[in-house]
């Protein structure tokens, strides 16, 4: 008994010898290791950062070149250092807008009409088709979706000539409709809308709305579309940029230069550069002006995109 009491007293006096103290010490060591591991995980990868920096430079260098080239006169364009700025930017912009009584403004208005109108209609069609493919079951659904995937892989350039022949037979060639109508159906937009609708719109909510007597159109417009909005913003942005930069379709469809978008209009000016070298400066200035709306739209939609995603996370 005396030996047991002595051992018990020794353990109480020496905390290092007691079992609970050893147990309490182990999580501290584990926490230290996890803490050091967490710090290591937060360190950015130099390789990944370097790749991103190179990608950013690769994307920004042409824009910087256009900015510097648009600030030069026709004589300086081919006689000075590529990335050396000059002081003729405002004069070049004035010459661009004054060309043929403001024809560039007409091209810009046509481009806005094609891009905004086509992107809005395409987003609406993509939202309805994606919503139907994600939340409705019908015969031939899988085959229809596979055809849409095949349309994603098919280059749009291949369809330009057949579309022109169809529109020529219908008497719509060389009109605004010849560029707007082919832009409405976007297989990639339908694919994105279908994926996003299946992930963001719960079937339970649809069934509850139907039980309350809501019609399908009201369910789609009042419930499904707000939930799909971040994905639809992506569809709109992709389609807007695609139509804004589209060259082949309007080049084939249109013959009247008053209907041209900026891409085709600047191409006609470029062809005049062989005989009129001053046109090169006008073309470069027009290219600089044409990318400003794209940058502004991307920044605007990016803010909306992030706020919408944050709001959805808070609601969830």
From TrEMBL:
Primary localization class, coarse: membrane
Biased composition (Low complexity): 1-13, 24-34
Chain segments annotated as transmembrane: 46-68, 112-136, 143-164, 176-197, 223-244, 278-301
Keyword Flavoprotein: no
Compartments where located: Cell membrane
Membrane topology: Multi-pass membrane protein
Keywords: Cell membrane, Membrane, Transmembrane, Transmembrane helix, Transport
GO cellular component: plasma membrane
Annotated stretches, region: Disordered: 1-41
InterPro entries the UniProt entry points to: MetI-like, MetI-like_sf
One Pfam entry name: BPD_transp_1
Keyword Transmembrane helix belongs to the record: yes
GO biological process: transmembrane transport
Domain named ABC transmembrane type-1: residues: 108-301
PANTHER family referenced in this protein's UniProt entry, alphabetically: ABC TRANSPORTER PERMEASE PROTEIN MG189-RELATED, ABC TRANSPORTER PERMEASE PROTEIN MG189-RELATED-RELATED
Family note: Belongs to the binding-protein-dependent transport system permease family.
Name recorded for this polypeptide: Carbohydrate ABC transporter permease
Annotated organism of origin: Brachybacterium paraconglomeratum
């Amino acid at each position: 008994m005396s030996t047991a009491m002595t051992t018990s007293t020794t353990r109480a006096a020496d905390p290092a010898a007691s079992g609970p103290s050893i147990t309490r010490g182990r999580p501290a060591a584990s926490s230290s290791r996890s803490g050091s591991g967490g710090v290591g995980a937060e360190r950015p990868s130099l390789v990944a950062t370097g790749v991103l920096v190179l990608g950013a430079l690769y994307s920004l260098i042409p824009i910087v070149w256009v900015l510097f080239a648009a600030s030069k006169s026709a004589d300086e364009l081919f006689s000075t250092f590529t990335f050396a700025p000059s002081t003729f930017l405002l004069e070049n912009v004035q010459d661009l807008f004054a060309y043929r009584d403001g024809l560039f403004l007409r091209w810009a208005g046509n481009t806005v009409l094609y891009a905004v109108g086509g992107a809005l209609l395409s987003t609406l069609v993509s939202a309805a088709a994606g919503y139907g493919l994600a939340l409705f079951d019908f015969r031939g659904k899988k085959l229809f979706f596979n055809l849409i995937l095949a349309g994603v892989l098919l280059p749009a350039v291949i369809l330009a000539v057949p579309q022109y022949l169809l529109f020529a037979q219908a008497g719509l060639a060389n009109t605004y409709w010849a560029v707007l109508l082919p832009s409405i159906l976007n297989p990639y937009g339908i694919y994105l809308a279908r994926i996003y609708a299946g992930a963001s719109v719960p079937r339970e909510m649809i069934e509850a709305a139907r039980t309350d007597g809501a019609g399908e159109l009201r369910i789609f417009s009042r419930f499904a579309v707000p939930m799909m909005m971040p994905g639809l913003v992506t569809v709109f942005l992709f389609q807007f940029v695609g139509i804004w930069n589209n060259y082949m379709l309007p080049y084939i469809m249109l013959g009247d230069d008053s209907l041209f978008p900026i891409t085709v209009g600047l191409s006609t000016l470029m062809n005049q550069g062989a005989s009129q070298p001053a046109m090169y400066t006008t073309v470069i200035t027009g290219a600089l002006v044409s990318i400003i709306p794209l940058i502004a739209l991307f920044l605007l939609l990016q803010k909306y995109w992030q706020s919408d995603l944050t709001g959805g996370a808070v609601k969830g």
